[in-house]
């Protein structure tokens, strides 16, 4: 098998890592939480960074009227399906051995990634803005939306949002598909 | 660029100064230690009942004893919670010693010997005259702070400890002073 | 060019900043001018941690105080033998059984000698043991939770003073009686003491897994007073040494009558031999009445068990079990050096210290060169067992610990000083005054094979003018010395809880890793625990009402309760649903004849309230838990005894 095919195979399989590793992490740091509290976002669930973190985030957030972090979301059913299908298509693409199929797969993945991030942003926006009018603490004009990526101060908390291993492996997969395309293109030129 | 070098040099100098400057000098520390009370004997308290040292210090008949206690640096023992019984030789008792003995003992090099002699005049426990008479009756000896025992004898009402006669007793806040007419020396 | 300048600037500054920080970092460790700054030696910056834990007994407070060294900061007072309203210890239903004794509920004791569990002769950071002096008991404290987990009462004992000392693998905790008493107790004239009173030495077996204690056997000794004890270690492992006084067996005016003998004894007990005799069935089973109280972390509740017998060994009939080492003048401390070779006797009325040699003792036993016997127990010849004497070291020696570098440190009560001397050469090398009248001292790990000879803590009985006055009752104190150099250096002088009678210390690293942060809710097996607000309920059984309540920031569930009547017995079973480090909630209700509850995350606690008056009565959270702590409250409506108000409960009217 050609080198580019191997690379494309790895590219196609890497998204499956999302079933084994969390995709994203949002954590809150404050003086009273020296170890930070946070949550790990998977393609099908949200889990504690440390035991009971989600419970404690909910406890803190209820003072400003934020909703509880959901246990169920449509995305949790959709995302695994999409990842599974894309991985499967990727493997088929490998066997076609066509460089533009590699490129096409990569572009679709980028598109899906952007859609996913947009969805994540919308969820964050709602989570940070859709507040209970009965909340004990109300600060006019204050939103509690966590950053899409990077860090930001929300009141006395430093909120940090960054990809985790699953997410990085996904990016690597997408990048590899373009590399596979590039190599294939170079070879075919020769 | 010039400015930059200036700034850096200044900062480096600052650093050198801040590093070589000790937070507090040795002398200051030493001074602090000297001004601290040196022990329980220097507690200022005019209200409580007087302790053995305070009473002895106020007695015109015991100036030699007090001077000796200070020379031996055992004041703190005499203000301890006790209870202690001190057999306190009067100035006259010290005068009975061979000439030069007292001034010899007061020399700094004899501090240890003096402390031992004085400690031999103290017993851990409360022994006024009736208590000592009881010891006589039981045939007990008196245990002294140095670890040796002194013979107690009785003639009529008079009680003798190590050959010294008790000529008066004073209750104090931390024990008993039995005034004696002789310095008790090792046999 | 501008960018270049900026980058260049940053690069110039980097090493500078590094050198500034390294200058600051190094200053704490450097010797010389900087190192001599006393304040710096005890300064632990805000947010920084101390290097050592010190567990200092509270004496007549009955508790155990936890300090950090070198800062002397007080972290916690662990309630052990005395009730503590702050922590509901002895007030809530869960911990009341901890203070049950054969005399009923005893709310106080005098806690004296903490000692730490050991493995292979080294401190292992698992448990702290401490004795209750007045109503004889031994307690075990978990160093994961800093809670008292177990208390065992000691029968046939009185004035449980020569306790609680731990053997080198925590096989046993020993408890010797200060007072000899008739055993079993009997109505008899006090004057017939001599020969009839007995002194029980108790050997409490410790389960290596969970630390649970069992009174394995007692050795019924002659009617002396037993003062302190220490275990053999290394070569002397398998032996336990107890100091005795009043070998005169006086029953009155002991200050005179018990100070007559020129020498009392250190009793050397071969507990390995005792185990052989136990295995061979050479014990007598004796009726006894004592309690064994165990706190279960999973039910958050204690139970008190009545015990009825004790196995007793008679040293007068069992050869090789006990030997007496003559020791001058009412020895208090009997302390074993890290190698296990020397047993230091501190005759408290003596001016010198006696160091018995363990190898010499074995040789003397071998050659049977005895100096008579006392009640059938062989007395070894003083000259045969003495390994060294520290002559005229001070007045009133009490207690010795070791730094592991060949030095020993002894306190002298009457001359109010700590004296440093050398093992083997027996010469005094330094002395420092204490302010004032020092009792015991402590070097972290000082009672083990591996002392951490950096600090020494001297505990003083009297402070007089050392602090701002507080009326006639003054604090007692502890004084910290740096013993890392040739001369001891006084660093710090800090006030203590109750009487700082004795202490045990260890490096913080042995504890911090295992320290519990909160109790897991799913592991809570309290019979009245509920795991969510939806399970909250109120149940009536006759005139007993059980409220199953939860707390979470910042409300109780339920917080409105109706249908309670005057004369009811109302149990508040409160579960703290929090699962976060350091978020306790408390609860107090108006007029309750008990303390508040202070409930740790994941824990359930219970108190009883007997409503006496008709009305609507509030309860509230007593621990400042959160931003809306002041909103964390509720009401109980109390109706007349004959009313028909239905039992209802709600939160937010739901």
Structural description of this entry:
The complex is a heterotrimer of chains A (190), B (187) and C (654). With 190 residues, chain A is of the alpha+beta class. Chain A is 52% helix and 16% strand. Chain A has one domain. In chain A, strands 3-2-1-5-4 form a five-stranded antiparallel beta sheet. In chain A, a hairpin with a 2-residue loop joins strand 4 and strand 5. Chain A is elongated and about 65 Å long. Chain A starts with a helix and ends with a helix. Chain B is α+β, with helices and mostly antiparallel strands. Chain B has one domain: Roll (FAS1 domain). In chain B, 42% of the residues lie in helices and 19% in strands. In chain B, a hairpin with a 2-residue loop joins strand 7 (164-172) and strand 8 (175-180). Chain B is globular. Chain C is 9% helix and 43% strand. Chain B binds chain C through residues 1, 4, 8, 11-12, 15, 18-19, 22-26, 29, 32, 37-40, 43-45, 74, 76-77, 80-81, 83-84, 116, 119, 124-127, 131, 135, 140, 143, 145-147, 149, and chain C through 5, 8-9, 12-13, 16, 19-20, 23, 27, 33-34, 36-40, 255-256, 259-260, 262, 328-329, 349-352, 392, 395-396, 413-416, 433, 435-437, 461-462, 464-465.
